[in-house]
Amino acid sequence: MALFSFNPDGSLRLPDKFQKEKDAAAREFVSMRVVRIARRAVSDTPLIDELDVEFSQKIENPGIFESLFKGAVDRIRNEAQITCEKTSDRSWTVRIISGKYRESWINEFRHFLSDSLQVKVQFSGQANAFRKGNSYSFAD
After folding, report:
1. Band of pLDDT at residue 127, cut at 50, 70 and 90
2. pTM (whole model) above 0.90
């Protein structure tokens, strides 16, 4: 039995368990009220993370995100520079630059969105990849 298997295009094939989870998440995103957040580390000097936030089609008023974002910045403790840029009708990029409470802000932000919108939040990504030993994956 091979340790790795490959797709016809040469990419690495996901193990069945992970492929099923990925497929289930994709079905949920189409059929339910879901906010998808993908986190990525951009830089380590200064520490910069970006959250790509996307609303599913089942969320009727995606424009509410900007006011929710402002509310989250005001209500959730942070000392980071946090900005938001709209990238399409249903998606935004939130940029978090350095600052104290950065990690807890990200975690509380996803719970804030879930509670405020009464939606499922699909969260993926990692803590700052530039710091050894701090690679995590989060899923609701």
Report:
1. low
2. no
